[in-house]
Design a protein that fits this description.
single chain; alpha/beta; Rossmann fold; seven-stranded mixed sheet; two-stranded antiparallel ribbon; 6 helices; 9 strands; about 25% helix; about 25% strand; globular
Length: about 200
């Protein structure tokens, strides 16, 4: 069982485990991979992207420490799996996807299965969503070569930004905003993500 596997790997948040247990991961995957949906593995989706392995989703979500009703900015909607996890936790989710076809299909799909983020956007994750800022939490689901300044500026004081930083592999990084100009940084080991790319008009 996937939840038991995640527990064995060190995921301790009961809220995160319950959210992952509630979500039918096979629906987010191409039919040829459906039989493997509850294994702890990443799989390809449309537009050369991937659905992250459940452990990575659980680990990032646990670091984010989402509370019900918090405004969360997600960079990289992808298949919508992480989006659904955040919605299941009661977050008000604002999400950005740079691949237009993926953005369109995921928006329709999430609505169809009953997950309704506050706002889905087609655009550049590096820029965030300044018009909806500030956010309680920000999660980046692709590997960034550096931490984008606009995302830091869109984080509330007391908020957390979870982002994999580097080329390959990336280091899972958490920034906590202490005041208007001070951030505290923590790192949590190496992971592998598809790269965070800028949106070209």
């Amino acid at each position: 069982m996937l939840v038991e596997l995640l527990k064995d790997k060190g995921i301790t948040s009961q809220h995160v485990l319950e959210a992952i247990n509630a979500i039918p991961r096979h629906l987010f995957m191409e039919s040829s991979f459906e039989g493997f949906a509850y294994q702890d593995k990443a799989f390809p989706i449309a537009e050369g992207q991937t659905i992250s392995q459940p452990y990575t989703v659980a680990f990032q979500t646990q670091l984010l420490d989402v509370k019900k009703g918090e405004k969360v900015l997600e960079i990289g909607t992808g298949s919508g799996y992480q989006t659904a996890v955040l919605c299941e936790l009661g977050a008000l989710v604002y999400s950005i996807e740079r691949q237009q076809n993926l953005y369109k299909s995921t928006k329709l799909f999430l609505n169809k299965i009953g997950y309704r983020p506050k706002y889905l956007s087609f655009g550049d994750g590096y820029k965030g969503l300044p018009e909806y800022a500030p956010f309680d939490k920000i999660i980046v689901t692709a590997g960034a070569p550096f931490i984008p300044k606009p995302l830091m500026s869109q984080l509330k004081v007391g908020g957390k930004l979870v982002i994999p930083v580097g080329e390959d592999p990336q280091v899972m990084t958490v920034l906590e905003r202490k005041d208007a100009s001070t951030f505290e940084k923590h790192t949590f080991g190496e992971f592998r993500f598809v790269p965070l790319l800028e949106h070209k008009n």
